[in-house]
Amino acid sequence: STVLADLVMAATGRLPATPGLGLAELGVTLDARGAVVVDEWSRTSVGHIYAVGDVSGRVALTPVAIREGHAFADTVFGGRPTPVPHDCIPTAVFSQPPAAFIGLPEDLARARGVDVTIYATRFKPMRHALTGRDDRTLVKMVVDTATRRVLGLHMVGDDAPEIVQAAAVAITMGACKEDFDRTFAIHPTAAEELVLLR
After folding, report:
1. What is the pLDDT of residue 54?
2. In sequence order, what are the residues at sequence separation of 6 or more whose Cβ sits closer than 8 angstroms to the Cβ of residue 24?
3. Most CB atoms within 10 A, among 3, 79, 143, 156?
4. Is 91 exposed, middle or buried (CB count within 10 Å of its CB: 0-12, 13-18, 19+)?
5. Known catalytic residue at 187
6. Which residues have CB under 8 Å from 84's CB, separation 6+?
7. CA torsion angle for 144, 145, 146, 151 (degrees, to 10)?
8. Are 90 and 170 in contact (CB under 8 A)?
9. pLDDT of residue 122
């Protein structure tokens, strides 16, 4: 399909601010973009040096950096080894319309060898029946066909970040498609589509 837009922005990402820190002299391995290479515990190639947040080149989001910092403290100082699940981070783009997602997209799930079932809908939110606007919302749920676990949720439309943030709790807890199906809908809302997907 064709999208008419007043402006197109190409965001190419950010580079970690590691130049000048002397990491190479310490033996800390950096990747091609200058990010500190870490394991699941945020440990670098030098066993007593750890890196969290944007400098690690994983996911450059403030809530992720905070969570990685807490996990580091729990692991190193609290005696509770705590990895951060980087596959299950709710994310939003505050564009017009906004977009939000959590978990795996369909193509990545398939690339990992998972047989997935896709549930998707495109609809006009009820509130626009009165406004006359023709704005549409898209919801797509990626489900592991064998286990029925929800692997990903993607949404474009009004309130997508708020709705995906709420659904992130269920998905992070390992909810299955049937858990969503058993949940009562609040009508009329855009969020009810999550429990009505067939």
Report:
1. 92
2. 30
3. 143
4. middle
5. yes
6. 40, 42, 64, 67, 68, 71
7. 10
8. no
9. 95
Q: Note the pLDDT tens digit of each residue in 29-66.
A: 999 999 999 999 999 999 999 999 999 989 989 999 99
Radius of gyration over every alpha carbon of the chain, rounded to an integer in angstroms: 20
Q: On the CB side of 62, how many CA atoms lie within 13 Å of its CA?
A: 1
* Alpha-carbon span 172 to 79, nearest angstrom: 23
The pLDDT of residue 189: 92
What residues in the chain have per-residue pLDDT under 70? none
Q: Name, in order, each residue with C-beta under 8 angstroms of 176's C-beta and a sequence gap of 6 or more.
A: 143, 147, 148, 149, 150
pLDDT of residue 134: 85
Q: pLDDT of 95-114, one tens digit each?
A: 999 999 999 999 999 999 99
Task: Write down all domains in the chain, each with its CATH number in brackets.
Answer: 23-76 (no CATH), 91-196 (3.30.390.30)
